[in-house]
Amino acid sequence: MSQPETVKLINAFGSPFGHRAEAALCVKGVPYELILEDLGSKSELLLKHNPVHKFVPVLLHGDRAVAESIVIIEYIDEAFEGPPLLPADPHGRAEARFWAQFIDHKFSRPFWLSFWMEDGPRKEAFVKEAKENLALLEGQIKGRRFFGGDDIGLVDIAAGGLARWVGVFEEVAGVRVMSDEEFPDLCQWAERYVSHESVNKCLPSRGELVALYSSWKEMYMQVAKVKFSS
Amino acid sequence: MAGAEDLKLLGMWASPFVLRAKLALSLKGLNYEYVEEDLKNKSELLLKSNPVHNKVPVLIHNGKPVCESTVIVQYIDEAFAGTGLSLLPSDPYERALARFWAAYIDDKLLPSWTKTSRGSTEEERAEGKEQSAVAVENLEGALRECSKGKPFFGGDNPGYVDVILGGLLGWVRASEELYGINPFDPAKTPLLAAWAERFGALEAVDPVIPEVNKLVEVAKMMQAKLAAEAAGASN
């Protein structure tokens, strides 16, 4: 019997997108080697294996490279044995993919960047939109332990950033977006997600992330200024 | 008909996203009821079936809705796995590549085309043109990589990426008449140009693609409307 091929994950510390890939590997029970990138100075390895986007995460499985966090989650589900990350029935899978895509589009880079915008009507509009989208997720999680049902699945992992990073960004930027008064079920889900034994293993602590994003605050505010200007 | 599946597609004739669903259904040889929606006066069924986005396409299978074109195409492939062509390959890595390129088409290619034609400033449109050039170049490489010398992204037969990109064919064809641009220029992207001809000529594809002159008519009406609004706004 041949040796299982090595699995490596190129990630950057503190990336909510990179976390998705790590969480999927941990939930599925796949051993992996973590390679942490310095995004200020991207390695040859990253540039070679994700020439199109040059972003983390990138999963390396033997000689195969898989990029795009949601694509990586489905790859991990299909290429390795372990608890399923998607339901078996086609309609359940379609539902999961729909919500993963919703989260991926609505809580993408602009969402994260908007925390660093200058106060004003544009920022208020972003916060309003974010809350509308969170309300849809609140509706989805009501009455469920996880979006995936009894255990973590594709949608939970796609939403992982909301479970840990939103609180961090709120603290560092001083903006409240996901309060437990407005989103009680979603906040309870967030607690369950971060405490899950598989997620806990690979999740940076809130303290570490607060320190990291505090150090990046000025830079992000500049980036947000440029991106959301005019 | 005994055992007939109840398949209904809510759509709009000019939508490239709806075309993706039609292409998948056609390639798999599936019968379905098509319902043309008036997007200015959306039906109860559409609003009820897609409460999050209120958009077409929506596939309703035995009463259960599926939304989002890429999700619908994968659903059709999985729910009707025994019927007709398999749109996604069976190997997990090849599936990941197909999904990667499908995401690229929606996240990079389409927005760059929209920017080129509908950017509000000269600068924005020029930026769109640059981004489009990069995007089609990458797709040309993707076609080379995925097809491995065979006719389609899916290999010998059309697959997922062919359908996702194929949804855009109506507008690709209309683009030449509207803007004097062929997005799949045979001089710059020969593989894509040949693919567009080949895919477009398939028996299961050709009758499904909206007529180019109708698309041109719709686009010209939209352009006139936007110009009138802009003129009105600047007064």
TrEMBL record, chain A:
Residues 5-84 form the GST N-terminal domain. GO terms for molecular function: glutathione transferase activity. The keyword Transferase applies. Keywords: Transferase. One of its GO terms (biological process) is glutathione metabolic process. CDD domains: GST_C_Tau, GST_N_Tau. GO terms for cellular component: cytoplasm. The keyword Cytoplasm does not apply. Its EC number is 2.5.1.18. It catalyses: RX + glutathione = an S-substituted glutathione + a halide anion + H(+). Pfam families: GST_C (PF00043), GST_N (PF02798). Residues 89-223 form the GST C-terminal domain. Belongs to the GST superfamily. This is glutathione transferase. The gene is gb03758.
From TrEMBL, chain B:
It comes from the Eukaryota. Residues 91-222 form the GST C-terminal domain. Its main location: cytoplasm. Residues 5-84 form the GST N-terminal domain. PROSITE patterns: GST_CTER (PS50405), GST_NTER (PS50404). It holds the Pfam family GST_C_2. Its EC number is 2.5.1.18. One of its GO terms (molecular function) is glutathione transferase activity. GO terms for biological process: glutathione metabolic process. It is found in: Cytoplasm, Cytosol. It catalyses: RX + glutathione = an S-substituted glutathione + a halide anion + H(+). Transmembrane segments: none annotated. It is an enzyme of class 2 (transferase). GO terms for cellular component: cytosol. Is involved in the conjugation of reduced glutathione to a wide number of exogenous and endogenous hydrophobic electrophiles. Belongs to the GST superfamily. Tau family. PANTHER family: GLUTATHIONE S-TRANSFERASE, GLUTATHIONE S-TRANSFERASE, GST, SUPERFAMILY, GST DOMAIN CONTAINING. This is Glutathione S-transferase. The gene is gb07279.
